[in-house]
Amino acid sequence: MNIPPAYVLTLSGILFALGVIGVLIRRNAIVIFMSIELMLNSANLALIAFARTFAPAQEALRGHVFVFFVIAVAASEVAVGLALIVAIFRSKESIDVDEVSSLRG
Amino acid sequence: MTIDLVLFFGLALISVVAAIAMIASRSAVYSALFLVLNFLTVATLYLLLNAAFIAVVQITVYAGAIMVLFLFVIMLLGTERESIGGGIRWQMPLAIVLGLALAGELAYVLLRTDIVQGPMADLSTEFGSPASIGRVLFSEYLVPFEVTSILLLVAMIGAIVITRKQRREGK
Fold first, then answer.
1. In the 8-state DSSP scheme, what is residue A96?
2. What's the pLDDT at A51?
3. Does the distance separating the beta carbons of A35 and B22 come in below 8 Å?
């Protein structure tokens, strides 16, 4: 694909902002979590776009390796986060983030 | 050049619309499915950006494993519907304004930076292939790779511990 990298980076910025909006306006903890995944994903897109920009250099492959690590960290984050959501649901019978503001178990 | 632009803008439109639909849909299941659509379009963009290995990882790990986990928890808890109303009244307009301001700033900065304006260099298909990434990963980044496996193990144990302890307290 032969387009200016700035376009891809702008798309990644827009997706990141949409993730931020999702975190701010939704109150379902699972949807907030999905918005965080959207933000991680947009950061990955920016990394890949930068790797493609500086591409013929072999060092640019480090961008791909970094994305690989980000995906692994995101997977473990999802496992722990969803376990936390399940634990919160067991004690509160709700995953509305407004309901879990009392800081009591 | 033009076919690339058409392809890119088509994919960008699909991914942005999917992201908006994910935020806006009432049902959490629909949100998850729109997020899968977004991940798939981003994986296609990875393919177009010579990142074949990352594209496959994106589809298997993100669109596959992580989203199955999300859907499983949504269905396990049975909380697809979200109560509308209540909360802070000015929260949503303020969030939208702030988010759009952030998007505008990011777009402004990125479209003005010189370093990313030029056309991309032509590449061989070797760049970003599983073989080339594997070579970097298992020579230069071997220790971080092993640490990642420990991280995944810790996350797995953590998930089990968090859900188990809660069940024992409930009884």
1. B
2. 87
3. yes
Q: How far is it between the farthest Cα atoms of chain A?
A: 55
pTM of the model: 0.88
The C-alpha atoms of residue A48 and residue A69 are separated, in whole angstroms, by 13
Give a yes or no: residue A105 inside a domain: no
Q: Is residue A98 part of a domain?
A: no
CATH number of the structural domain spanning residue A64: 1.10.287.3510
Residue in B2, B30, B79 to test binding to A, most A beta-carbons within 10 Å: B79
Contact flag B107-A14 (C-beta cutoff 8 Å): yes
- B1-80: what CATH class? mainly alpha
Count of domains for chain A:
1
| Residue A104 is assigned to a structural domain of this protein | no
Q: Which of B62, B77, B94 sits opposite A86 (nearest CB)?
A: B77
Residue A84 sits in which domain range?
Answer: 5-92
Q: How far apart, in whole angstroms, are the C-alpha atoms of residue B58 and residue A40?
A: 12
A87 located within any domain: yes
As a whole-number percent, the residues of chain B with pLDDT over 90 amount to 39
Q: Report, as an integer, the average pLDDT of B96-108.
A: 89
Q: Are A43 and A70 in contact (CB under 8 A)?
A: yes
pLDDT, one tens digit per residue, over B61-72 is 988 899 999 999
CB atoms B1 and A3 under 8 Å:
yes
Kindly list the domain boundaries of chain B, sorted by start residue: 1-80
Higher confidence at residue B138 or residue B111?
B138
Query: pLDDT tens-digit profile of A56-105?
Result: 777 788 889 999 999 999 999 999 999 988 888 888 777 777 777 766 54
**A97 reaches B (C-beta below 8 A):** no
Give yes or no for residue B117 having a pLDDT over 90: no
Interface mutation vs chain B, best among A18, A36, A67, A90, most B CBs within 10 Å: A18
Centroid of chain to Cα A28: 16
